[in-house]
Design brief:
By secondary structure, this protein is α/β, with parallel strands linked by helices. The chain is built from ten helices and 21 strands. A five-stranded parallel beta sheet has the order 5-2-1-9-19, covered by helices on one side. Strands 13-12-11-17 form a four-stranded parallel beta sheet, with helices on one face. A three-stranded antiparallel beta sheet has the order 6-7-8, with no helix packed on it. β7 and β8 form a beta hairpin. The longest helix has 21 residues. The chain starts with a strand and ends with a helix.
Length: about 375
C-alpha cells in the first residue's frame, strides 16, 4: 500500500508522522510505503510571521529542515507535484517523475492574494511571507503617527490574525510612545468584527476600551494611495494600511482544476475529496467552511492518520473529523485568550490573561515537537 502525501506543511507533516508510527510494522515489512513530496527542504512556522512583522521574533526562528521533522521511515523528496491524474492514481512532479499511489493526501496549503484587489499589494503592508513581514516591520519603524487602517479580506489564513495584528499594533505604538498620535481603524467584511459571533462579542468591547474604531460590512474593492474603498461604497483614509488579504489555494490545484480558487471540495467528516474514496484533503487546501488554521490541520491530520491506518490494516475508516479547532488570540498588553470549537459547539473566549500569553509564547517553541506529532 503506497500512501503519497503532497505538501510538507503542518498538516502533511503531522499526518505523515502519524501514519509512520501507526504503520511501523507494515513499513518495516515492506507491505506499505509513505512518500512525501514537498516544494522545499525547509519547514516554516507560519504563525511566527505575525511576530516578525512587529519585531517580536527573528526570521531565524521560523525554520527547521523538513527532513529532521519526519520519521526516518518516510521517503521524503523535494519535488513538488505539477500534475494530478486522479483517475489513474498517479502524479507527475516538477522533475518529470511519474509516481503512482494507492492513497493520496493533498495538503498543499494556501497563499495570500492581495493582487486580487486592485492597488492592495502596492499600498498595504501584510505578513504572510517572510519578505512581506520584514517589509512591514521596516515600515512600522519609520511610522511616526497618523491614520492606520487594518483591512481584512476573506477567506484568509488564521481566523484570529486580524484581531491579533490589531492588538499587536496597539502594543507596538505604545512601546514606541506614539500611541497618542495614532488613529487605529479596523474593517471587517461581515456585519460584526469577527466571523465567529462569540469572538466578535468579546473583541468589540476590547477595541472600544483601547479607542480602536471599526467598520463592519466593509469588503475591499480597490485601494488608491491614501484610501481603501469598499464594495459597499464606503472608504477609509490611511497613512498606513495593514491588510489580512483574501487567500487562494495553491496554483497547482487551480491548474489541475481540482477546486475553485484552489480549494478542493472535501467531505466535512471523512475528509476525502468529494467523489474520490482514496483522495484525502486537509488543512488550508479544503473548501470546508471552518478556520484555515494550524490547529485545524493538526486535528484533521490526527483523524486522517487513524482512518488511513485503519483502512490499510482493517479495510475501513474508524472515525469522523468533528471540526475541532483551537486558536490562541493574542490580546495585547502581555495577555491572550483562546477560542476552542467544533462543528457543534461554538467558542466561548474568556477574559485574556498573562498565563495564556505565556502559554502561547511557549507553544511558539514547542511547535516543532507538535509538527513531529510528539505533542
Amino acid at each position: 500500500m503506497h500512501i503519497l502525501v503532497v505538501g510538507g506543511g503542518m498538516g502533511g507533516t503531522i499526518l505523515a508522522n502519524n501514519l509512520a508510527r501507526r504503520l511501523s510494522g507494515e513499513l518495516e515489512q515492506g507491505s506499505s510505503k509513505i512518500t512525501m513530496l514537498s516544494a522545499s527542504d525547509k519547514h516554516m512556522y507560519q504563525p511566527g510571521l505575525l511576530y516578525v512583522a512587529v519585531g517580536k521574533m527573528s526570521t531565524s526562528e521560523l525554520y527547521r529542515d523538513q527532513k529532521s521533522l519526519l520519521e526516518p521511515s518516510i521517503d521524503f523528496h523535494v519535488d513538488p507535484v505539477e500534475k494530478f491524474d486522479l483517475d489513474n492514481n498517479s502524479v507527475t512532479t516538477k522533475s518529470g517523475k511519474k509516481i503512482s499511489y494507492d492513497i493520496i493526501c493533498i495538503a498543499t496549503g494556501s497563499r495570500g492574494n492581495a493582487a486580487g484587489i486592485p492597488g492592495l499589494a502596492e499600498n498595504a503592508c501584510q505578513f504572510y511571507t517572510e519578505a512581506d513581514a520584514l517589509a512591514m516591520y521596516k515600515k512600522l519603524q519609520k511610522f511616526e503617527g497618523g491614520k492606520v487602517v487594518v483591512a481584512t479580506g476573506v477567506p484568509h489564513k488564521c481566523p484570529m490574525s486580524p484581531l491579533e495584528i490589531t492588538f499587536f499594533l496597539i502594543d507596538y505604538f505604545k512601546k514606541r510612545g506614539i500611541w497618542d498620535k495614532v488613529d487605529l481603524h479596523y474593517t471587517y467584511p461581515i456585519g460584526r468584527v469577527h466571523s465567529l459571533e462569540p469572538v466578535a462579542k468579546w473583541a468589540a468591547p476590547e477595541f472600544d476600551k483601547e479607542g480602536v474604531t471599526y467598520e463592519t460590512l466593509f469588503n475591499m474593492k480597490e485601494v488608491v494611495p491614501g484610501k481603501v474603498i469598499s464594495e459597499e461604497d464606503s472608504s477609509a483614509e490611511f497613512d498606513l494600511l495593514v491588510t489580512v488579504p483574501p487567500h487562494k489555494g495553491m496554483q497547482v490545484i487551480e491548474d489541475n482544476e481540482l477546486g475553485k480558487g484552489g480549494f478542493i471540495p472535501t467531505d466535512k467528516k471523512k475528509l476525502n475529496m468529494e467523489g474520490r474514496d482514496n483522495v484525502f484533503v486537509l488543512g488550508d487546501t479544503t473548501n470546508l467552511p471552518i478556520s484555515k488554521a494550524g490547529s485545524t490541520a493538526h486535528f484533521e491530520a490526527e483523524a486522517l492518520g487513524e482512518n488511513i491506518a485503519a483502512m490499510v490494516q482493517q479495510g475501513e475508516p474508524v472515525r469522523d473529523y468533528d471540526g475541532k479547532v483551537f486558536c490562541f488570540i493574542e490580546a495585547g498588553d502581555g495577555k491572550a485568550t483562546y477560542a476552542m470549537f467544533d462543528y457543534n459547539n461554538p467558542p466561548n473566549p474568556q477574559a485574556p490573561t498573562s498565563g495564556l500569553h505565556w502559554f502561547k509564547t511557549a507553544y511558539n517553541r514547542m511547535y516543532w515537537a507538535s509538527a513531529r506529532g510528539i505533542i
